[in-house]
Structures are given as structure tokens and as C-alpha cells.
Write a structure and sequence with these properties.
four-stranded parallel β-sheet, about 550 residues, alpha+beta, about 45% helix, 17 helices
Length: about 550
């Protein structure tokens, strides 16, 4: 006869041991299930790879046999994309040149991630396929097949360049896809290798936005001038100075402008002449002062324009033309269109003592970095050259003892921008507003391990949160050398000495400069009404940055 009590006890005991923990699958079982699923997924991908590769190898196609091997070789070491970057640069178009630099920078990052990191972590063998002899590469790579470096380079360059020039997206994607397909057709990669490389390249291209924000399509905001600028269809009343020592300015350009502006007085000048004196002589009998040159030339002309009360016509012809880019004047066509219509805006002019600047004024080792960067950026590009120059300068330079508004500070870098720049850090890209009334002050302190922390923050894009970096807005800053020595100063890229002390200040909204307000190929000019503008308070400085940690 059965024992209900005993049975109940045994059941109760079993239930006591099968509580919540007892009913939960153990970790070993979960690990085995996860491993099994992962292994099954890898087997599925491998099977699909093999099937796709075998099908391509069996396909009898003239493009696969003759075009793809040549395209694959052309893309070796990124030569195809370097050539396209050179072609974009040769156009002389500012947007195309930005596309070339961003594309090359993206490709460098993707190549490092795919070839140096990705391949070192995997050991996938190249496909063993019966590819026709005419489709094979002469030299089969011996590195890991996963991921595809060619696909990574292709996707990175196309993504980076398309960020700056969206019109490049469609043809770029088609060419990058063909390069990826060529690696499969020649039997050196599986489809999954190419897909992984493409993902790495696209991510590298998008990641450049963290270090190098895209310039918005609209030009910087400005104000309507207090008086109407004169319209001049044929150059009546215009005195135009052409600085032939500037980047793309030349005698040929002066002749072309003379044909477009037959009534203008056009004067050629060079580096050996006194530019300020020529500008003042030209302004004496003019209604409009014009300048053809780069940022340093424009800042000299801006000072004379403010001094004489004349509107300024800016025709960009320098190396970078940062002021014109923020203004929304891409070239002579934009400038002359605004001149003919009499459309102008009022913007700020910065002052470093008596020296004017339209963009930036800096001291400390920033001056050394500017000089070093100039020697490298033609080869490395601006952003990479900035990092390399910074490392070199910090190795050999010493911090500067400066007194800012009565406070003694030991600084590596000091930067003053004419209006607020974005992004934060020591690589400002553009200004949203050219008439905000503020100086954008940025400094890097010489703290413990400041050099190492600074370089690490620049490389990781976290300088804005570094403890060695700080920034604020000010209407003026009194700068003195703690030892009384002369201060080396860089204004708009031109390096010169100053006194042992000076004041960084502003001529707020005093410079009237021609710019179209109607829609153009550069976007809509943004000229808010005075009532819509929030004016800065002149009673004190406004912090623009909170300290963080690297």
C-alpha cells in the first residue's frame, strides 16, 4: 500500500530544490546555446560566401574577365581614390577641395582600421576558386581576407567626399560597388569580406564629422548695414586692389576683372609693396574699396574700409579664404552679383592692439603650430597636419607666461576668434554669426601632463571636455607678457611681432561688406532684423565652456 505522506514529502523535497534558481537554465547551457547559434551563423555565412563566389567564378562575362581585374589593380593602395582627390582639387572649387580632403582623411582612417587592426584580428584564408586565368590577379595578397581593405577605402572615400558634395554620392557609390565586386570576381575576397570592409569605410567617413563638422549650406548670419551700399554695375566708383602675391590672384585675373568692370580703377600690387599705403591711396578718391586676395589681404583692406567709411568688396583669391567662406562669397561671380545689386551686410572687425583681423588672432605656441601646419597641410591635409604640427611643437616649445585681464596664466595656446567659432577646441571650422559682438577666447593651460593630455584629447575629439582647455566669450581681453618681452602674434595667418602688451577688442558691426541676400548656389543669405538679434551685454564676460576631464 502506498504512503501518501512519504510521497508528498518526496514531492515537496523535489519542489524545494526546484525553486526559481533550480528552474533557471545554468550558464553552461546558455553558453553552449549561444556558441552553437554563433557557430551556425558563421557556417551559414561561409556557405553563402562559397555559393556566391562559385557562381561568379562560373559566369562567363567580358566585363568580369577583362574590366574587373584592371579596376582591382587600379584601386591598389588607394591610388584610384587619390587620383580622384587630385582631380577634385584641380577644379579650384572650394567645395570640391573640401570633398577631396575629407575623402582622403576618411580613407586613411578606414585603411588603418581594416588593414592594420581588422586583418590582424582574423586569419581568414583567401577563396580557393577556379577563377579563369584571365580574371586572376598577378599577385594574390597573402594577408587575411577579412575584411576587404579595397572595399573599406572605396566606401570611406565616397562617404567622406559625399558629405561635402552630395552630387558625388551616386557616381561614387557606383564606382565603389564596382571596386568591391572586382575583388570577388578576381577571387581574392568573399562577399562578406567586401560587406565588412564597406561597413568599416562608411563608418570612418561618418566619424570625420566628429573632428571636422560639415560647413552648413547657409552663410553666417549678419546685420543689415546702417546705410545702403552703392550699386555699381560696371565698377563705377570702385577702386579694386589685386594682390598678385596671394594664392590664385594674378595679372590674368586682374585683366579679366577689368573686362567685367570697365569703369573701375584696378590696381595691381605685390608682396614687396606697402599694401596699407596702396589701399589708403586707392580709397582717397573712391566710393567703394575692393580687394582681391586671401584673408591677410582682406584684413588689411577691412581696416582701411572701416577707417574711411567705405563699403568693402571681397573677391576671394587666397589659399583658404575663411572669411569669404563664412560670408557666403565663393568667388568673383558672387561678389560681382552683390556689387551690381548693391546688397551688403554689416559684420564685426577684430582688433589686436592696432592690428585688425577678420578671422583669428593668436599667440603662444599657436604661432609655431600655424607655421608648422602650413608646411605639412599641402601633403597631409589640414586636420592631420594640425595634429602632427601640434605634436612637434609641443615637443620642442615651452609654455608662455601671459597675464590675461590681470590674471597670470601659464599657457601653451591662446586663441581669439572674431565672433564665435564651432566646433570647440583648437581646430575651429566656421562661424554661425559674423556680427555677434564677441571675441571667442580659447586657451590651453600648461598643467601636469598637459602636453600628453592635449594630444590625446585632439586625437579623440574630446578637447572641449579636457581640463587643460577652457574657453569663454569676451568683449575685450587685456594681454601682457609676464616678463615684459615682445609677444609673437598671428593675425589671420600672418605672423608678426607686437608690443609687450595689447588689448584684443572689437569694432562691432562697423565693417560693411558686399554679399548677396537672394538665394544663390551657395544657399540663402541669412540677414536677421535688428529686432530679432540678441545683443551681447557689454558689462562682463560670458563663460562658454565648462571644464571636464580627459
Amino acid at each position: 500500500m502506498s504512503d501518501p505522506a512519504g510521497t508528498a514529502g518526496r514531492r515537496g523535497g523535489r519542489h524545494r530544490h526546484e525553486g526559481p534558481a533550480g528552474r533557471r537554465p545554468d550558464r553552461a547551457r546558455l553558453g553552449a546555446v549561444g556558441f552553437g547559434r554563433s557557430h551556425a551563423l558563421r557556417r551559414l555565412i561561409a556557405a553563402l560566401d562559397q555559393a556566391a563566389a562559385r557562381r561568379i567564378a562560373r559566369t562567363d562575362s567580358w566585363p568580369l574577365d577583362h574590366v574587373m581585374p584592371g579596376l582591382s589593380r587600379l584601386a591598389d593602395r588607394g591610388l584610384l581614390w587619390i587620383g580622384l582627390a587630385a582631380a577634385l582639387w584641380a577644379t579650384g572649387d572650394r567645395q570640391a577641395r573640401r570633398a577631396a580632403w575629407r575623402g582622403l582623411g576618411s580613407m586613411a582612417a578606414a585603411s588603418t582600421a581594416a588593414n592594420l587592426v581588422g586583418k590582424s584580428l582574423t586569419s581568414r584564408r583567401r577563396p580557393f576558386l577556379n577563377v579563369p586565368a584571365r580574371s586572376r590577379l598577378r599577385r594574390v595578397p597573402r594577408s587575411s581576407a577579412f575584411p576587404s581593405g579595397h572595399a573599406a577605402n572605396a566606401a570611406a572615400f565616397v562617404t567622406g567626399s559625399a558629405i561635402e558634395m552630395p552630387s558625388l554620392a551616386a557616381p561614387g557609390i557606383a564606382l565603389a560597388s564596382a571596386v568591391g565586386a572586382s575583388r570577388i570576381a578576381t577571387g581574392v575576397h568573399y562577399p562578406s569580406d567586401v560587406l565588412a570592409g564597406t561597413a568599416i569605410g562608411a563608418a570612418a567617413g561618418l566619424a570625420t564629422l566628429r573632428w571636422w563638422p560639415r560647413r552648413p549650406p547657409r552663410p553666417a548670419a549678419a546685420l543689415r548695414p546702417p546705410r545702403t551700399a552703392p550699386a555699381s554695375a560696371a565698377g563705377e566708383g570702385l577702386a579694386l586692389i589685386v594682390n598678385t602675391a596671394a594664392g590664385t590672384a594674378s595679372t590674368w585675373m586682374a585683366r579679366r576683372l577689368a573686362a567685367d568692370l570697365p569703369e573701375a580703377t584696378i590696381i595691381e600690387t605685390s608682396a614687396e609693396e606697402n599694401l596699407a599705403a596702396r589701399l589708403r591711396d586707392a580709397a582717397a578718391g573712391a566710393l567703394i574699396l575692393g580687394m582681391v586676395g586671401g584673408d591677410g589681404t582682406v584684413s588689411a583692406a577691412a581696416a582701411v574700409a572701416v577707417e574711411t567709411g567705405l563699403p568693402l568688396l571681397v573677391i576671394p583669391a587666397g589659399t583658404f579664404n575663411h572669411f569669404a567662406a563664412d560670408l557666403g562669397v565663393e568667388g568673383a561671380r558672387d561678389a560681382l552679383a552683390a556689387l551690381r545689386d548693391g546688397e551688403a551686410v554689416a559684420v564685426d572687425l577684430g582688433l589686436a592692439g592696432s592690428r585688425p583681423f577678420v578671422n583669428t588672432s593668436s599667440t603662444g605656441v599657436y604661432v609655431d603650430m600655424v607655421n608648422a601646419r602650413r608646411q605639412l597641410e599641402g601633403v597631409l591635409g589640414r586636420r592631420l597636419a594640425e595634429v602632427v604640427a601640434l605634436i612637434g611643437v609641443l615637443r620642442h616649445s615651452r609654455p608662455h607666461e601671459l597675464v590675461l585681464d590681470g590674471r597670470r596664466r601659464r599657457l601653451w595656446l591662446y586663441f581669439a576668434g572674431n565672433c564665435r567659432y564651432v566646433p570647440p577646441g583648437m581646430a575651429p571650422a566656421y562661424r554661425p554669426d559674423l556680427a555677434d559682438g564677441w571675441l571667442d577666447i580659447r586657451v590651453v593651460e600648461a598643467a601636469t601632463l598637459a602636453r600628453l593630455r592635449l594630444v590625446a584629447a585632439v586625437l579623440t575629439g574630446t578637447l572641449g571636455r579636457s581640463r587643460v582647455y577652457s574657453s569663454w566669450r569676451a568683449s575685450s581681453v587685456d594681454i601682457r607678457a609676464a616678463g615684459g618681452q615682445r609677444i609673437w602674434l598671428s593675425t589671420d595667418g600672418e605672423v608678426a611681432t607686437a608690443e609687450s602688451g595689447f588689448i584684443h577688442g572689437k569694432h562691432p558691426r562697423r565693417l560693411v561688406v558686399y554679399r548677396r541676400q537672394a538665394p544663390s548656389h551657395t544657399g540663402h543669405a541669412h540677414v536677421p532684423d535688428d529686432a530679432a538679434r540678441t545683443s551681447p551685454t557689454r558689462t562682463g564676460d560670458v563663460p562658454a565652456h565648462q571644464h571636464g576631464a580627459v
